[in-house]
Give the backbone structure.
Amino acid sequence: MSHIQTLGKDAISFIFPRTCASCETEPSLEESVFCFGCSLKVSSTDHFSVADNQLRFRLAGRIPDVQAAALYNFIKGGAVQRAIHQIKYRNRPDIAHDLGKHFGTKLMASDYMVLPDIIIPIPIHQKRRQQRGYNQCEAFATGISKIAGPHVIADCLVKNREIISQTKMNRLDRFDNVKRSFHLLKSERLAGMNVMIVDDVMTTGATLEAAWSRLKDVPEINLQLGIITLADG
Ligand SMILES: [Zn+2]
């Protein structure tokens, strides 16, 4: 996008404030994707200020010694759940991008998280990408990048087959199923780097665990995790 286009877009959003990512009727608050009413139905985490946080605890034993932060806790029927629905099914990558900017601001203010050199979005299958028109995790990643600066590399961790339905699988099978769908391309470019893997929603953690286990063997890589919201899992 050219500077002129970017300026034009910012000017438009200045004149016509954007509508809330959840209710789609009220204008969103400055520096937020939600309106005042919906922002009351949001639960922000303390993950950026507490290193030994609940998310890390939830991943313990599966992803050891990794710094991890999610923006929001799960609230059933809450504003975040509706925003995620817009992002995934209503052609709203801009919401993911804005949430990335929000994440980037919190990341910069965190006194324990390392500012990554590279951000890697969890990939989606090409067929899904064509249907949706974008990878929502990549939109989230570019939002973080815009504020915090690290490059987004979206062609290193790739997904080259659809995941078989996981509903009847146990946790280990589920992990193995996801892991086999992920592959690394030219991973040597990540050697010695601080890398943040980002995902939109974490349910069981199987996806992040599979991505982490693919990336962890890159020489001297330091991995962290960034997530928009936790789900009940
Ligand atoms: Zn609202």
Notes: The beta strands are 67-72, 118-121, 151-152, 157-159, 182-184, 194-202, 222-230. The mean pLDDT is 90.
